């Protein structure tokens, strides 16, 4: 693993640790419902501050169950991840193509190293 | 940061929509101009929108024992400037309001204002100031994304406190209440978002140096100031 990959892996590891630590340390213990959404807690706080407040509009479409809702959230994440992966895939392919093309142009004499640095400069 | 459908009184809902509208309209114009003048940007624009899509779907546990999600708006704001991020953020919020019953149409204006307007601008401002003083790129990116994330949730707290001041302690009391729900929970998540944004920026530096150079992402010191001036003269 080169240095770049190691740093990237470390970044992901820290993010994962930040997500897992609250669960591992049991920071939700003692709450009525541990790890509820902050958005839902805000709704509860509103009804505490203004008990008479009635939401005056309701969603046009509501996922019929928690399963459907999580499916739609997964769909949202998958769409985003798919586009990101496509982007980096296209970029990588294009870069490799450029490298190969310059290596071919430079011919045998220049060697692949020269082709590589030329592609980087582009 | 999603204020639920119908959970803002009509006057507030309208006011926030009116406040957000010019940013989104200006953003749509910037976006169409960017695509027309630099068609090669389209792919990276899609990737920036996709980053917001992924991050705002990731509900993560936090130290407060509750869950929240990052916003992913810092990256696009740093790459393409905040007006364009206003559009990408609005698309994400609209998707969630229509399909997930997360947020809502009546609260869209308020949610757009926090996530797609204030977040990107605050994050971008921090990034620019840090770059102006020659802070390393990845450090500036981290704090830009961190601030974009956290400021979004602070704005949500203010919006709710304005709409629902505490009967006893007033606006400030309510701000403390909503702030402790949103802002405190968000701090570790904003760190995560900063790190993920740095990760993607590192991958972009490897894969798309040309695009980043054209967008002026690498400019630092005195040059960093010329970035907007240049883009603005070009646009006129």
TrEMBL record, chain A:
It is a multi-pass membrane protein. Pathway: Cofactor biosynthesis; adenosylcobalamin biosynthesis. The keyword Membrane applies. InterPro entries: CbiN. Pfam families: CbiN. The chain crosses the membrane at residues 71-90. It is found in: Cell membrane. Keywords: Cell membrane, Cobalamin biosynthesis, Cobalt, Cobalt transport, Ion transport, Membrane, Transmembrane, Transmembrane helix, Transport. Residues 98-122 are annotated as: Disordered. Forms an energy-coupling factor (ECF) transporter complex composed of an ATP-binding protein (A component, CbiO), a transmembrane protein (T component, CbiQ) and 2 possible substrate-capture proteins (S components, CbiM and CbiN) of unknown stoichimetry. Belongs to the CbiN family. NCBIfam families: cbiN, PRK02898.1. Part of the energy-coupling factor (ECF) transporter complex CbiMNOQ involved in cobalt import. This is Cobalt transport protein CbiN.
Automatic annotation (TrEMBL), chain B:
Pathway: Cofactor biosynthesis; adenosylcobalamin biosynthesis. It is a multi-pass membrane protein. Keywords: Cell membrane, Cobalamin biosynthesis, Cobalt, Cobalt transport, Ion transport, Membrane, Transmembrane, Transmembrane helix, Transport. It is found in: Cell membrane. Its main location: membrane. The chain crosses the membrane at residues 41-58, 79-102, 108-127, 139-161, 181-205. It holds the Pfam family CbiM. InterPro entries: CbiM (IPR018024), CbiM/NikMN (IPR002751). Part of the energy-coupling factor (ECF) transporter complex CbiMNOQ involved in cobalt import. Belongs to the CbiM family. Forms an energy-coupling factor (ECF) transporter complex composed of an ATP-binding protein (A component, CbiO), a transmembrane protein (T component, CbiQ) and 2 possible substrate-capture proteins (S components, CbiM and CbiN) of unknown stoichimetry. This is Cobalt transport protein CbiM. It comes from Streptomyces mutomycini. The lineage of its organism: Bacteria, Bacillati, Actinomycetota, Actinomycetes, Kitasatosporales. The gene is cbiM.
């Amino acid at each position: 693993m080169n240095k770049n990959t190691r740093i990237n892996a470390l970044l992901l590891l820290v993010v994962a640790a930040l997500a897992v630590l609250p669960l591992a340390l049991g920071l939700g213990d003692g709450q009525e419902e541990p790890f509820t959404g902050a958005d839902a807690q805000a709704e509860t706080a509103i009804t505490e501050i203004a008990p008479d407040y009635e939401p005056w509009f309701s969603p046009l479409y509501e996922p019929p169950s928690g399963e459907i809702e999580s499916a739609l959230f997964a769909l949202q994440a998958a769409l985003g991840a798919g586009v990101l992966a496509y982007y980096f895939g296209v970029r990588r392919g294009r870069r490799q193509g450029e490298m190969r093309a310059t290596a071919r142009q430079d011919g045998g004499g220049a060697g692949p190293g020269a082709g590589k640095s030329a592609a980087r400069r582009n | 940061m999603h204020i639920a459908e119908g959970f803002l009184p009509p006057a507030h809902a309208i006011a926030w929509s009116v406040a957000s509208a010019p940013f989104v309209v200006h953003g749509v114009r910037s976006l169409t101009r960017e695509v027309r003048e630099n068609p090669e940007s389209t792919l990276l624009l899609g990737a920036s929108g996709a980053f917001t899509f992924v991050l705002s779907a990731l509900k993560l546990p936090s130290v407060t024992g509750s869950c929240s999600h990052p916003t992913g708006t810092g990256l696009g704001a740093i790459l393409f400037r905040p007006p364009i991020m206003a559009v990408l953020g609005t698309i994400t919020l609209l998707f969630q309001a229509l399909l997930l019953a997360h947020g809502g149409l009546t609260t869209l204006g308020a949610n757009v204002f926090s996530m797609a307007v204030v977040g990107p601008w605050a994050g971008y401002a921090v990034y620019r100031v840090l770059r102006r003083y020659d802070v390393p790129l990845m450090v500036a990116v981290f704090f830009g994304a961190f601030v974009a994330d956290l400021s979004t949730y602070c704005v949500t707290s203010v919006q709710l406190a304005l709409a629902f001041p505490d009967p006893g302690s007033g606006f400030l009391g309510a701000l403390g209440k909503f702030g402790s729900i949103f802002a405190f929970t968000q701090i570790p998540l904003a760190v995560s978002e900063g790190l993920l944004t740095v990760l993607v920026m590192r991958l972009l530096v490897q894969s798309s140096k040309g695009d980043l150079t054209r967008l002026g992402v690498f400019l630092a010191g005195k040059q960093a100031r010329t970035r907007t001036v240049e883009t603005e003269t070009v646009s006129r």
